[in-house]
Amino acid sequence: MSAGDPVLAAEPVASFDARFSEPGSAPPPWSAVREVLVTSEMFWLSTVRADGRPHVTPIPAIWDRERLHICTGDQEQKARNLAADPRCVLTTGTNTLRAGLDVVVEGTAGRVTDREVLARLAGLWKSELDWDFAVGENSFRDADGRTGLVFAIDPAKVLAFGKNPYTQTRFTFPG
What we know:
The chain starts with 12 loop residues before the first strand and ends with a strand. It has helices spanning about 30-40, 75-85, 115-130; strands at about 15, 40-50, 55-60, 60-65, 65-75, 85-90, 100-110, 135, 140, 145-165, 165-170. Helix content is about 20%, strand content about 40%. Strands 1, 2, 3, 4, 5, 6, 7, 8, 9, 10 and 11 form an 11-stranded antiparallel β-sheet that branches. It is α+β, with helices and mostly antiparallel strands.
C-alpha cells in the first residue's frame, strides 16, 4: 500500500442467500451497505495471534476509497498480529435484534506509508472522529509523540445482515 492509494473501481457482486432471509425479502443495495461503512465510527477488529488464538478489539475505522482504514499503536497486539498475518475481519452495525443492518468485512490489511495518503487520512480522522494525528515517518504521530501504524483493509467479501426483514447478502469484489 505504500506505492499509493488507488480507488477500488469495481462494484461488488451481490449474492442474496434466501436460506437465511425472510420469504419475499430482497437484498440491500450496495449503497445501503456502503452507507453503514461510511457512517459507522466503531468497528470490532478480529485478527489471529501467532499461536492461532483469536484477538478481537473495538477500534474506530474510516471508510475511504472503497476500503476501511484503521490506526493502531506500533506496540499493540493487533499490529503484531497483522504484521504476521494480514487477514482480518471488521464488523459494525447495531446491537438491536429487529432493526438495522450489520456488516462484516473480510479482507487483507496492508500498511499505508505514502505521505500524501497519510495526510489525507489524518484529515479524515480529524473531520470524522475529531482525532488529531500528524504525519510522521511512514505513520501517524499523536500529540504525545506515539507512533500509530495505519492499515488499509481491502475487502474480499462483505456480509450484510438486515434485521427488518431478516436478510443475508454476500458482496464479493472482482479481482
